[in-house]
Amino acid sequence: MFNSLANPARFMRLSGAAVPWLGGAAALLLAIGLCLALFVAPPDYQQGESVRIMFVHVPSAWMASFVYLFVAVASAVALVWRHPLAAVAAAAAAPVGAAFTFVCLVTGSLWGKPMWGTWWVWDARLTSVLVLFFLYLGYIALVNGFESAERGERAGAVLALVGVVNLPIIKFSVDWWNTLHQPASVFRAGGPTIDPSMLAPLLVMSVAFTLIFGWLLVVRMRAALNERKARALQLYAAPSRRAAAESPPAGSALGDVA
Amino acid sequence: MSAIAAYFAMGGYAGYVWPAYAVATIVIGGVSWQSRRRYRASAVLLDRAQRQAAARR
After folding, report:
1. pLDDT digits (tens, 9 = 90+) for A180-200
2. Which of A83, A119, A173, A227 has an alpha carbon 20 to 30 Å from B48's alpha carbon atom?
3. Does a structural domain hold residue A31?
4. Mutating which of A103, A212, A215 best tests the B interface, going by the most B Cβ atoms within 10 A?
5. Range of the domain at A103
6. What is the ipTM for the molecules in this complex?
7. Cα A252 to Cα A247: distance, rounded to the nearest angstrom
8. A119 lies in a domain?
């Protein structure tokens, strides 16, 4: 599958057909998920209605880590195999991951204030997710910070791979250190401890967020490939245009512009 | 208090629940809007570059 998509022209053709389906499915799942989260799910017996923050906080937290893993794997594929679309995919995914991480941090803060009595604590879970957010920002700055796109992508890929060490720290921070943050209640040994009436909306919202990511990834990759192709066409044209400017022949390409 | 007002009050947590949903909507909606705008701009850019290349041929 990855090899057949390696050709950017073929990727553009196939992804063009996929975009409306991905976007439509994401919108549908998001609508169902929001209805379940805001109307169907019961209030928590301890936390009351504030528990509804969970249905945006937890899916965005999962996406924050998942998208980072995606960026790291795509970066590795770009570095090792020079897959032509891997670097594009990594660069396209990172801002979406940063957005999910930001949502996770802000909604967590809004949930922490009524439940813990504080907006923020410098404990392991919160700090490691903040580090994840800065890793995203650093990656984005590196990828866009070089004159040559290839050098930027290479530098960003190295940072993305080094930063992977943060992912297990995030996951196990609630087990390794004392923290205000609750431990895992879905992906844990022995199965979820969360009630099905809350697990269902949580999972629907998570699928919706994953589809949003997939949709945005494809849209952003298509934009990057268009930009790249346009730049290549202009670079290819540049020498002949310079020659034309020095001695403009009648009916040259510049004729209608000048 | 009417049922609708009670719903929006979120059992006293309205000041936390609604801002959380608002931030998620604004941030994810904003990235979506920016991504689609970038795609449309890129399609215009490519179209122009291709027509210029065709005109030179």
Report:
1. 888 888 888 777 788 888 899
2. A83
3. no
4. A103
5. 56-184+196-238
6. 0.93
7. 10
8. yes
